[in-house]
Amino acid sequence: MTPLRPRARRTQRRSGKRSRTAAALLLTAGASFGLLLAAPAPATAGSNLVVNPGLESLRASDAMPTCWEKAGWGDNDFTVTTTDQSHGGGKALALSVTRRVSGDRKVLMAEDSSCAPSVTPSHQYDLSLWYKSTTPDASVTVFRHDVKAGWQYWTDLKTLPVSAGYTRATVRTPVVPPGTDQITWGVSVYGTGTVTTDDYDMEDATQPAAGAVCTAGDACVKGSWAVMPFKNPVRSMHSVVLHNGKVLLVAGSGNDPAMFKAGTFTSAVYDPKTGAMKTIPTPVDMFCAGHVQLSDGRVLIMSGNKAYPAADGSHGYEGFKDSYIFDPSSESYVKTNDMNEGHWYPSATLLGNGDVISFGGLKEDSTGSVTAEKFSQAQQKWLPRTEVNQTWSYWGLYPSMILMQDGRLFYSGSHVFGNGTPGTGASVYDYDANKITDVPGLQDKDNRDQSMSVLLPPAQDQRVLTMGGGQVNTNPEASRLTDLIDLKAPNPRYTPGPLLPQGTVDQGQGPKPETGAQGKMYVSAVLMPDGKVLETGGGLHDRADPVFEASMFNPATNTFQPGLATDPIPRTYHSSAFLLPDGRVMAVGDNPGNGTFDDHVSIYTPPYLYKGARPQITSVANNRWQYASTQRMTVDRPVVKAELIRPAAVTHSSDPNQRFVDLPMTVGADGTTIDLNVTSNPNLAPPGWYMLFAVDADGVPSVASWVHLGGPDALEAPKGAEVKGAEVKGAEVKGAEVKDKAAPMVHDFAGKMTEKAKAPEPAHTSHPVPVTISGCDRHYGAENVCVPTAFPKTVPPTTAGRCAWLKAHDYGVLKLNGRDDPLKLDPDRNGRACD
Length: 835
Description:
Layout: E1 68-73, E2 76-83, E3 92-100, E4 104-109, E5 125-133, E6 138-146, E7 150-159, E8 163-172, E9 180-189, E10 193-204, H1 219-222, E11 224-231, E12 238-241, E13 247-252, H2 257-262, E14 266-271, E15 276-281, E16 290-293, E17 299-302, E18 305-307, E19 318-319, E20 323-327, E21 332-335, E22 349-350, E23 356-358, E24 373-376, E25 381-382, E26 401-403, E27 409-411, E28 427-430, E29 435-438, E30 452-455, E31 463-467, E32 482-486, E33 495-496, E34 504-506, E35 511-513, E36 524-527, E37 533-536, E38 539-541, E39 544-548, E40 550-554, E41 559-561, E42 576-579, E43 585-588, E44 600-605, E45 617-620, E46 624-625, E47 630-635, E48 641-645, E49 649-650, E50 660-662, E51 665-667, E52 673-677, E53 688-695, E54 705-709, E55 720-721, E56 727-729, E57 732-734, E58 738-739, H3 799-808, E59 814-815, E60 832-833
Parallel strand pairs: 46-54
Antiparallel strand pairs: 1-4, 2-3, 3-10, 4-9, 5-8, 5-10, 6-7, 6-9, 11-44, 12-13, 12-49, 13-14, 14-15, 16-17, 17-20, 18-19, 20-21, 22-23, 23-24, 24-25, 26-27, 27-28, 28-29, 30-31, 31-32, 32-33, 34-35, 34-39, 36-37, 37-40, 38-39, 40-41, 42-43, 43-44, 45-47, 47-52, 48-50, 48-53, 51-52, 53-54, ...
Domain Glyoxal oxidase N-terminal: 266-594
Signal peptide: 1-38
InterPro entries: Gal_Oxase/kelch_b-propeller, Gal_Oxidase_central_sf, Glyoxal_oxidase_N, GO-like_E_set, Ig-like_fold, Ig_E-set
């Protein structure tokens, strides 16, 4: 028997335990595969790059086809045999898994320089094979050879439906990443059953860029910003893109104590198609709440502001228990049951089963919450504390909790206010095991306040980028640091990324170029349809000193394209930037420490929209998609990729649910009829509404079409379908009881972490939090005015120096709250600072 290659240990782990039954029938439309479509013929007819594609040449040592090998991992029993049950010629390969507790088994092209097909970076390839299968738990899997790092898993391209007779499966690879010289591919089986394959084909399907000439000047490479002629009618701190294409802007009191005292709480709905803004009655102060889109497209909003800090320092901000759902169809709020306690600044992460999990924030008494909360998709309510696993950990404020492909949560280290969590500042939380394992490598982890973390495109790559940040309590200059982590690694750790590009900064004396290590906090990062990440906005210090800079991060090269056009409006504290369905980016908000709020709305048109005509999605056969299904769209001209992008729900540089999910394509002979292969794993693409984009070879995206993925019906356990006359004979099956859909394909990544997992802390009620956690000295001014507890280091620690800084930043005259004057801003003792 051929020994298993090292990649056998770098493969799949499937979550959950589901019974396996034999299968014998090609499932028809209406079954849980969604719309089953006949695979169109490939769009190209080039030379076949596969060595021994018909499996006819055999090795004498083990009777395996030349240039083919077995791989896999886990606790299972399997056989790989050469059979005469072929599609063409006289040989085929049959892979059978007869018992499975965990893992998978594969047949793939050998990881050998003379066997693995050579590829060209930036090209795409059409892969096809003929197969028959008795299990829905099978997929086409690809590995790639990196010239520096060697062989590694790349991606899963297509779930193979059950088929009693030979059928052809065809799929196009994503663009080959830089540094890749060869790939291997084949079939993975991660459930019990048999898959027989034959007649493999691989052809270069690269679509050349049109090379359209751009006549827009600098906008061709920098894009352009436009400040809208209308104003934001509310002091919005929260931005949520709705599945009807509109944008929900939530203010609550808008960090305005007068509005709070008057009980005047506001939201607005913006329609990008018409430019209309509609103010929405808002029941409670949702200022600094948490929010996330539920699987049906409604918006769950949790907690908010129960009280502003007291002038005498007796309490800080307070959260409340209330929770609401915003319904886009009625544009109104409906109350849910209460959470177990208050959470001002909570996290909100949608899980693969549609539940929402939330951590952190401040309780009703201003202390830190150590209670994890879970909103049940099935019950449509917050669960009692006793029904939610508790580690009694204080995760801080707006901790960035990103769902991993195996259902665990990655805390990236991005947060708001105060230091990072104890330990390394980043960790993996296994909810089912209720254990936390630290992840090393995050640079300067206690100065990453209001950094931003994103799961890079595509979500299948499981890589996270963390950018910038500062520290409101010590108030250093914000950081240029970025960090990258590959959650596919056996023992993932952050590694330093490229430094953030520098722009100009206005510290009260006009814009000047940044120097040295100057970077920014309040970073906004937006996943773009071309697979890049726009970073924009930010400030050099706590609620001050806006930085005018924007760049585009390319995940394929791990580099920034600096020098993009910059938003002319300052975007620091309480700002948001987010993707619109038409491929542009909208930015709102700026709430500096002097208590003002900028109501200008900016729109960024990226360079890709200056490259000529856009491709159009002319039809989507079905806008209700199931996992592990094939869905058809048509376009008006050839495109090179398609993806789902989850609409934004962003506040305070935090949107842990933002994700870009690749849709491997099967392209018809006309080049415009395209079948899209949907992941079987809800953890990669949690259920809900997504923007579907198609992108051409120039990187120009279509306008998005809205599709709904999954939902309660798509998350049920597989059902059996009885078929009369079941008979199993070798690799052939005639009639059986079948599972009617594939199980989620989950990989065995991050399975050998060297840090010791931490068990839950002893149960306790809260974590102590100082009233100055927000970096504001409450001895001066109103509740929404933030006089820094620590001025920037360049400010002389004198009355004159501090007052000059406050004047340059438009604070005006500030009243003294009480008798104490710790910063010595009222030397004449008249009750007014810096008058």
